[in-house]
Amino acid sequence: MPGSRSCGVVTNSVPTVLSPIPAAGNAAKVSTALSGKRNAQQNRVLSRITLLGQNVNSYRYGEFRFHDLLKALTDVKGIRRIRYTSPHPQDINEALLKVHADHNPLIANHIHLPLQARSDNVLQRMNRTYSQEHYLRIVDMIRKYVPDMGITTDMIVGFPGKRMRISAKP
Q: What phi-psi label fits residue 89: left (phi over 0), alpha (psi between -120 and 50 degrees) or beta?
């Protein structure tokens, strides 16, 4: 389907790819796509799902978006924990955070938001689509929906042309 984005899945440590989920659109179809997948070593029904991708939350299949996928996974019997990584700040929205809030603790109470640099100038040179101000608004929105959400990030140190200030003060 044009404009579709795939989403990788790790299920009980066995990689699977939803690329995209066939006829996605509701919990029954997502459940069917995942049914029968078992950990070959332990022959267990899926209990933990990790969705992963470069910009995992930009997943879409027609009108079916990432937050719809998360919501549909919450309806699959036997799943005890859903995680995802690495979301892109541009695709963090209220619909996604509402699903988090409505399905906590089934969906892990954690989000990894790659800031990568604190300088808007450096972010722009890195071709990032967000600014420090935009990033902080996202954090405020996360706190509005899930006040105790764990937030982690990553920073790139030594981006070419970046100047380091060394301070003698602790």
A: alpha
| Angle between helix 66-74 and 94-102 (nearest 10) | 10
This prediction has a pTM of 0.73
DSSP of 13-56, one letter per residue?
TEEEEESS-TT-SSHHHHHHHHTT-B-TTT--B--EEEEE-TTG
CB 67 within 8 Å of CB 101: no
Q: Residue 139: in which H helix or E strand, if any? A: helix 132-145
Q: Which among 50, 124, 127 has a CA at the least distance from the CA of 81? A: 50
Amino acid at 134: H
| Distance separating alpha carbons of residues 20 and 59, to the nearest angstrom | 9
SS3 (DSSP) at 135: helix
pLDDT tens across the length of the chain (170 residues): 444 454 555 544 444 444 444 434 455 556 555 554 444 444 455 688 888 887 888 888 788 889 998 998 898 888 889 999 888 888 999 999 999 999 999 999 999 988 888 888 888 888 888 888 998 999 999 999 999 999 998 888 777 765 655 445 44
